Amino acid sequence: MDARFTDRVVFVTGGGSGIGRATAQRFAAEGAKVFVVDVNREGIGETLALLRQAGGTAAGDACDVRSAEAVRAAVAETVATFGGLDVLVNAAGIGGFARFEEITAADYARTMGVNVGGAFHTMQAAMTHLLARPGGNIVNIASTAAMRGTAYAAVYSASKAAIVNLTRSVALEFASRGLRANCIAPGGVRTPILRNFMPRGDFEQLLIDYTRPPVPGAFAEPGDIGAAIAFLASDDARVINGAVLLADMGTLA
Ligand SMILES: NC(=O)c1ccc[n+]([C@@H]2O[C@H](COP(=O)([O-])OP(=O)(O)OC[C@H]3O[C@@H](n4cnc5c(N)ncnc54)[C@H](O)[C@@H]3O)[C@@H](O)[C@H]2O)c1
Predict the structure, then answer these.
(1) Alpha-carbon span 20 to 3, nearest angstrom
(2) 3-state SS assignment for residue 160
(3) What does the alpha-carbon distance between residue 220 and residue 237 come to, in Å, rounded to a whole number?
(4) H or E segment to which residue 34 belongs
(5) Which of 29, 36, 25 is nearest to 4 (CA)?
(6) How far is CA 69 from the centre of its chain?
(7) 58 falls within a domain
(8) How far apart are CA 136 and CA 86, in angstroms?
(9) What is the pLDDT of residues 39-61, one digit of tens each?
């Protein structure tokens, strides 16, 4: 495997599971020092064990990305541990299907708080550090649900659309200072979150995003998304900025 990130420091949210974990593994395999955070402390422990077993350099901590203060502390811990920060990946996310009338104000606040607030807090906390070294880079995880409306996932879909323009705006604002910021928009990926996206008998609409890639039953593995994220963060993608890379096996084509 290429080692495009030797001695670079990568901060991954949602690193205790799924895409975040696989992304951390990919960066570590390419020589990065990886700091993983997640609200699930047990998941972080498992990820750190996997990274270290594979010979990677890794540290991490529990952190709820809804808290600006907790995020600032985790970013400070990363810089204290590894001496700086080069790449930020926001993979922490929550969501699931529900009929619109069932979504509570608390569900709304939690979904927006994690999916949008989390990316906002980490980008703000990380920015000075990312700008301090050449090649500062951000990859945020949107979804095919960001690119079109999604029946039975209205708030999730809105939160993912918000991430897209949050990322584009940051890309524009910091381009002249050498920073790049992009989104990846996966379709169905085999991770625990999929349990929350099962069609229900009382849904009237067809749910095409997750269930109907052009090759029936095709799902990406978390490592496929980790590989695409590493590409976006690498110099191989140096002319890609403010983009949304669809990684959906053609679902929205
Ligand atoms: N799996 C898919 O099919 C799919 C498709 C499109 C987009 N996505 C997005 O990919 C991202 C990663 O999801 P995944 O598929 O790996 O699911 P996952 O459930 O395996 O991982 C999400 C992680 O985020 C963590 N998390 C939740 N709330 C948090 C908080 N407040 N603070 C810190 N961490 C928190 C969870 O503990 C979990 O470890 C999410 O943003 C998700 O919306 C997933």
Answers:
(1) 19
(2) helix
(3) 21
(4) strand 33-38
(5) 29
(6) 20
(7) yes
(8) 5
(9) 999 999 999 999 999 999 999 99
Nearest CA to ligand 1 atom 31: 64
In a domain, 48, yes or no: yes
As for ligand 1, residues whose beta carbon falls within 6 Å of it are: 13-14, 16-20, 38-40, 43, 63-66, 91-95, 114, 118, 141, 143, 186, 188-189, 191-194
Could you tell me the CA-to-CA distances from 190 to 115, 160, 182 in Å, in that order?
A: 19, 19, 22
Question: Distance between CA 94 and CA 122 in Å, rounded?
Answer: 16
* Main-chain dihedrals φ then ψ at residue 67, nearest 5 degrees: -100, 115
Report yes or no on 27 lying in a domain. yes
Q: Does the predicted TM-score (pTM) go above 0.85?
A: yes
Helices 154-174, 105-112: inter-axial angle, 10-degree rounding: 30
- Report residue 244 CA to chain centroid gap: 13
CB atoms within 10 A of CB 21: 26
Query: Ligand 1 centre and the CA of 14: distance in Å?
Result: 6
pLDDT tens track for 101-112: 999 999 999 999
pLDDT in tens, 201-250: 898 876 655 556 777 777 899 999 999 999 999 999 999 999 999 999 99
Domain with residue 39: its CATH number is 3.40.50.720
What residue type is 233 in one-letter code? A
Is 251 among the domain residues? no
Cα-flanking dihedrals φ and ψ of residue 146, to 5°?
-80, -20
